[in-house]
Design goal:
Layout: E1 10-15, H1 23-36, E2 41-46, H2 48-51, H3 58-75, E3 83-86, H4 92-101, H5 106-110, H6 113-121, H7 128-142, E4 148-150, H8 156-173, E5 181-183, H9 218-226, H10 243-256, H11 260-266, H12 272-298, H13 301-330
Parallel strand pairs: 1-2, 2-3, 4-5
The chain binds tryptophanyl-5'AMP (TYM).
Residues 13-16, 24-25, 27-29, 47, 50, 137, 140-141, 149, 151-152, 154-155, 158, 189-191, 200-201 line the site of tryptophanyl-5'AMP (TYM).
Length: 334
Amino acid sequence: MSESITEKKKVLSCIQPSGMLTLGNYLGALKNWLAMQEEFDCTYAVADLHAITVRQEPAKFRSQIYSTCALLLALGLDPIKSTLFVQSHIPEHSQLSWLLSCYTQFGELSRMTQFKEKSQKHADNVNVGLFSYPVLMASDILLYKPDFVPVGADQKQHLEIARDIAMRFNRVYGDVFTIPEPYIPKIGARVMSLQDPAKKMSKSDDNINSFVAILDDRDSIIRKFKRAVTDSDSVVRVSEEKAGVSNLIGIYSAVTGKTASEVEREFEGKGYGEFKLAVGEAVADELAPIKERYEKIIADKAEIERIFKEGDEKAERIARKTYFKAMKKVGFVL
Ligand code: TYM
C-alpha cells in the first residue's frame, strides 16, 4: 500500500507581521500559498523574529502577530492541510541561524538589495540583525527541507543566498539540506506602490494611499485606485514609460485572470477614470470575503492560539530533527 503513495513535495514560506498585509503580499505570495496547499505538503509561518530588524511598538507588534495569523486563516489556509506556526516559538530558527552565519560570507550579505534599501531608510538603526536577516531566512527555509518556496520577486535574492548556503554546507558535510526552488507567480510578482510606481508596494510605507491593505474597506480600495499615479497620456497600455498604468494592468490581470492584451483591448478608447474604477472594483470584490471571514476569526484569540500551538508542535518536530542533524555533522557533542 505505502509503496504506491508517492510523497508530496514540500513547500515552505513565511510572512512578516510588520503591518497590515497588502495586495502585494496577496498577489505576490499568499495566493500561491493557498493554491499550493491543495497539492503539496505546506508549512507556513508568521516571521515575527524578522520584524524586529526595524523598531516595533510592543503593543502594536503583538496585535499585528495575531492579525497576521487571523488573516492567513481568513484567506483559507487550512490548519488541517497545512502547518501554520509562529517563527519565534521554534527556537531552532535562531539556533540554526547562528550555525549558518558561520558558513555565510560578509561580502555576500553586503550585496543584498534589501539590506542596502533598509539601511538607507532606517539610517539611525542599521543593526546587525538587518544585516544577517538573510541567514535567519535561510534557516527558516532549510529546517523544513522544502522543494518550493512561494514568494514575490523581491525575495528572489534571499532565496538564492539560502540555496548557496545550503550547497556550501552540503559540499562539506553531505546531504543535510534540500536545495529549494523559488516559486514566483508570472503575474503579480512585483506589485508597485500606487503613489510611486518605481517603488514596490509595501505594508510599512508611511503613505497609506500607496498600498491597498487586504482588510481595507471597499470605499478606501476604490478611492486609492482612483488616486493612483498614472501619466498625462490616456491610453491603457503596458509600457516601460507607463509604469503606473502597467502596474494597474498587472493588478487587474492578476485578479481577473485576463491577459494584459485582453485588458488593453477592454479599455481601448476609454479613459483612465473608467479603467481605475474597474481595477478598484475588481480588487474590492476579490478581497471582500476575506475581510468578512477575518472579522469573525480575530474575535476569537483563544482559537487562533490553539491553531498555532498545534502548528508549532508539528513544526518543532521537523525543525529539531534537521537542526540536530546539522549540529552532529559539524561535530558538536549532542
Ligand atoms: P514580506 O513579509 O515582506 O512579504 C511576504 C511575501 O509577500 C511578497 N511581497 C510582494 N509580492 C509582490 N509585490 C509586492 N509589492 C510584495 N511585497 C511583498 C514577498 O515577496 C513575500 O513572499 N523575508 C520575507 C519573509 C520571510 C520568508 C522566510 C519568506 C522570512 N522567512 C522564509 C520565505 C521563506 C519578507 O520579508 O516577506
